Amino acid sequence: MAQIFTPRANSKPDVFQEHSIKRIDNYSWLRSAKWQEVLQNPDALEPDIRAYLDAENAYQDSVMCQTKPLQKKLYSEMRGRIKEDDNSVPLPDGPYLYGTKFIIDGQYPHFIRQSHSGGDEVTLLNGDKEAKGKPYFSIGGAGHSPNHRLFYWSSDDNGSEYYAITLRDSKTRKDRDYKIYNTSGGFTFSADGQYGFYVRLDDSHRPSKIFRHKIDTDPSEDVLIFEENDPGFFVSVGKTLSGRTILITTGSHQTSEVWMMAADEPLLNPTIIAKRENEIEYFVEEHEDKFYILTNAQGSEDFSIVTTPKIAPSKENWKELVPHKTGRLIQGILVLKNHIIRLECEDGLPSIVIRNLSEGSEHAVCFDEEAYSLGFSAGYEFNTSLIRFSYSSMTTPSQVFDYDISSRQRKLRKEQEIPSGHNARDYVTRRIFAAAHDGETIPISLVHHKDTVLDGSAPCLLYGYGSYGMSIPSRFNSNALSLVNRGFVYAIAHVRGGKEKGFHWYKGGRRELKMNTFKDFIAAADHLVVQDFTRYDNIIAQGGSAGGMLMGAIANIAPEKFAGIIAQVPFVDVLATILDETLPLTPPEWAEWGNPIKDKAAYDLISSYSPYDNVSAQAYPSIFALAGLTDPRVTYWEPAKWVAKLRAMKTNDNQLLLKTNMRAGHAGASGRFDYLKEVALIQAFALMTVKKAL
Prior knowledge:
Elements: E1 14-18, E2 21-25, H1 35-40, H2 47-64, H3 68-80, E3 91-93, E4 96-101, E5 110-115, E6 122-126, H4 127-131, E7 138-144, E8 150-156, E9 163-169, E10 175-183, E11 188-189, E12 195-201, E13 207-214, E14 223-227, E15 234-239, E16 245-251, E17 256-262, E18 271-274, E19 282-287, E20 290-295, E21 304-309, E22 319-322, E23 328-335, E24 339-346, E25 349-356, E26 362-365, E27 372-377, E28 386-393, E29 399-404, E30 409-415, E31 427-435, E32 441-449, E33 460-463, H5 481-484, E34 489-493, H6 503-507, H7 515-530, E35 539-544, H8 546-557, E36 564-568, H9 574-579, H10 586-593, H11 600-609, E37 622-628, H12 637-649, E38 656-661, H13 672-689
């Protein structure tokens, strides 16, 4: 291989001024002036920007070339843990059972249907066939009409999350001769299956408009039925499980508002359930003449459940059903004909609680491991006493159960198969707690091989996120076993900014308290060292998207405490992005970070931790940043600018790598096996950095 020189981005200073403060950005030229066009046509990227990204990709490839045999081995191991000809547990809906399956060597799901009374399986959509010949392919949504005659599916062919909706005859499997473009991917049928409702993205990639489509008519004739004019609110549309009501939800990260339509009267205009109030969220389910609402209104920080009549659903008519309890976060609800089911989390562990609607009695479905993940799915049927839930832990592969509410019996319907073999008893999972700088305790979920010696010598991959109230579940991760089997401790730091310990845990890591997220992650690393799980020079930190911002921040604050940092599609140019209201996600972000355009205090705060703005002349850990050219969430130029500035300013020779996927977006490679190649590359970087098993 020819010698590849370390790339150096040209420095072209641009001066920006906000609140009488001058800000110089040497690498703002890496932002494409045609970024909206690039999202849909990657070939539109300016030649000078492409040349720089290509140079970084070539450099990354040359540095990681020595690990190619290891990458191949890691890929083989991870693929060997996947059951290639896998099927989901089918879900009943009237006369049919619906499900998905994968075939051997297939990268994409096949959507299937079978008569409830038996008979041949019918493939409604062959994902592998639709993806053939495309460098990128992603299915955004798929579903059937209430009368089972139509099947919709949507796809994105370049990673930019602009989905085209296709309607297909369920019997002949022939597509209509038109598509509906520039949508968010979903499609909700009216009760009679003659109409459908979908969200269209605007020119700034914001889901702001809902249209009604009459089946078999030109989409240009579709009717706008709802528009959100606040750029900080995004809209979605769906239907209650009973099928009687179509719900339009508009919301930001902390505020929501819901509108309703009768599913059997699709030509009527939607009406509001309850007007939006700042930082009040509510989520609606339906039962006969009532709505059941999950909300944080009336001081219910960790959420309560209320009921209200459908004919008069406004807040003054809300009646408490399940009261608020501090520290018990209600994460979701499901309403069936005779029961309401809620998923709640207390002391960091989830449980499912089932309430009989006529009697008011309750019982819970719980588990005994120290750290685990639990969730339920709604299915298609309203009049049923069966619910389906999934369970896994960091040592236990995913299990799918059907639970009979009446008999309280659970039936194992599926267990994740690991074809290459897996013995849960070979691994140890624990939940430990680190002391934060202010006296809080930070949960850490971890797993390691039973034979790993815990004397500080083990390498550790420490994962974190900590934004938007998203909790990171302690679930089984078969890919992580490749590191764990090589002696790694795999750990998740449940830092503030998520909701692992309730809503207050989220509030404690946002806006003016955002620094807590970064300090918590560093405290978790400190605790793992003090407890002899690892050493600082053996810790690899990993995070993606907003978790990539966390990676950038800890790299600036405590670079000496990490051997390496993996930042996937990292949100690192925070200040410039949150100042730019033309970007798709910026207005909704103001509720999370503050609005630096209008508020100097917010400007000063974000400026104080924005990773790109705080790169300095110091020694940095080895860093591997990954980006997607067509990413609409974290634009490619954020990691590109960050790496360019780091390369110019860092004072040591540790590795600094950037890989930009020139044909993918936020989620990286789309196929289930192509994605594993990226994971193998990332793990090879981690192993190379701690000089382990090359």
